[in-house]
Amino acid sequence: MKRSAFILPVVVVALALALSSLFIVDEREKVLVLQFGQVKQVREEPGIGFKLPLIQEVVSYDGRILGLQTQPFEVTPLDDRRLVVDAFARWRITDVVRFREAVGVEGERGAQGRLERIVTPAIREVLGSVPSGAVLSDDRTALMNRIRDLARRDALTLGIDVIDVRLTRTDLPEQNLAATFARMRAEREREAADEIARGEEAAQRVRASADRTVVELVSEARRQSEIIRGEADAERNVIYAEAFGRDPEFFAFTRSLTSYERALRGENSTMVLRPDSEFFNYLRSDQGAAAAPAAGPGGDDQISAAPPAEPGAPAEPAVAGPAAQLAPLATE
User: Fold this and answer.
1) Which of 23, 98, 225, 325 stands 20 to 30 A from 210 (CA)?
2) Structural domains of the chain, count
3) CA torsion, points 50, 52, 55, 58, in degrees to nearest 10?
4) Mean pLDDT of residues grouped by 10 in the chain (332 residues)?
5) Residue 191 forms part of a structural domain
């Protein structure tokens, strides 16, 4: 009984020491085995490791890619326009021994602060060498690559590799937004006024050209119409002359009938004429050859006078129709 009571505590203590000498390395971690603050072993592969119990200790660090969000700060680009900038950096531990020597017991928390003090000056240096238009544009990948390279060079002393740096915000300060907006609005209004002036000028040129074209086309059309009208009048006069030359009596007769039709059109059935008026020569006499033409080729409503009757000649017989109705009413 005494022996078993002695062995059991020894076994328990040995088992505890054996378990404390074992440690597990996760695939997401990097492990250092320290002895009195000095690095004795580095384990980056996952698995089971061994250490001296009570003498050595195990310190693990995250081996994954970590992120850093910087605080907003102001930068002054090349054209002296202040900008409020913040960035996001992705980094990871590449040299765990150097990382331990640089940050000590602070670990990832201390590395975040030191890395921010590296990234912020790099952003100021790069953005201070370019105008604000390049910073505010959508295509600023080259600037972010330059910031990453500068930060990576300085972060190697910490055992850290800066994988990427991205500018998440590049805005104007609140106190400058109103002035900047007013300036941009004035510039846009000036450009709009210039465009309107150029448009008005172009419209005046087009309008003047169109008016000149209209005048030219109308003038040419009128000239052509006058030429065609003159040629038509000349042809008509030639036709009239030829017709009159062939049979003057028939031409005078048809013109007289046309004059009668126009004079007695509609309700105009009463006329006041001299008894010996020449207007109804063709209605009072059947001597068409002796009667003068009722209307010449040059007029529509004029009737040529007929030669007077010989003394002692019998009176012309009465003619039925409008002449018979008009003869009793004819007075001087």
Assistant:
1) 225
2) 3
3) 0
4) 66 66 80 81 80 80 90 86 88 89 85 91 90 80 91 90 90 73 88 94 94 94 94 90 80 80 70 73 58 40 38 37 36 31
5) no
